[in-house]
Structure formats: structure tokens, C-alpha cells
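Hi U.,

Before I forget, here's the chain from the pilot set. I'm dumping it here mostly so it's searchable later in email.
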Amino acid sequence: MRRWSDADLFWIIQNGIRLTGMPSWKATISDEDTWKLVRFTHALPRLSAVAATQAAKSPEIAKSESDLQAYGKILYRQEGCFTCHRLNGEGGEGGPDLPLEGARGRTDEWIIGHFKDPAVYTPGSLMPAYDNLTDEQLTALTGFLQSQMGPSNR
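Structure:
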């Protein structure tokens, strides 16, 4: 792989490249998280294909709550939650508006259980199960959503 400069990779991640399938992430990923992705991308050529795949599936996350929330924000986009749910005035309208759901005072445990099997927690729900996500991913996604919905119910 050609060695892109840090500035090149930052620009590509933020702005995308037309007609290549590389979207712009400027509206959803902070500058700080973009720089983390730049560093990760530079590490990829040094990793074997197996190691790179494993690293992408379970990135090492710092234990701070803000890093987990940043990872949760990435998962929110990556898993397509925004296609059905609205958050901060953006997103689809097929599912509940998430800040309104936050007003219901759901605990982290309830939200994680709902991700794993929505029909158990909300009979008749059209939401797919996210039982493919790891506990760490579910915790990160829940932390991000709770941070967007007001006071924590943890």
C-alpha cells in the first residue's frame, strides 16, 4: 500500500472520495477520532491479513468513558442505527426518536438486553437483534446512546 501522509488520510476520512464507496465521516467522527483512525491505518501494512481483520473486529479501546462513547458513536453509524432512528435531528424515521426513548429512563442493562433480543423487551418490535456484537461493543454503543439522551441511568 502506498504510504499516504497523515494529512492525506485525515482529509480522505473526513471528506471521502467520490465514486469510490469511501463516504465522508466529517459529520459523525470527531477530529480526535479521525487522528486515531489515521494512526490505525498506518499500522495496517505492518499487520498480516489475519491480524488486521482481528484488529478491525475488536479494536483496543482505552478504558475511559469518553473513548468508549467515541467507539459507540462509530458503532452507531457502522451498524446502521441511524437508518431507522433519529438522533440530534438526523436519521431515519422508521424507529423511535432516541432522545425521546432516553426520557423513559432505560438502564444500561435494559438497553443491552434490547439490542440482543428486541422482541423480548418491546413485543412487536421491528428492530433486528444485534446479538452479533460483543459485550464490549454493546457497552460502547449503550454508553454513546446514554450520553446523547440525558442523565445516565447506570
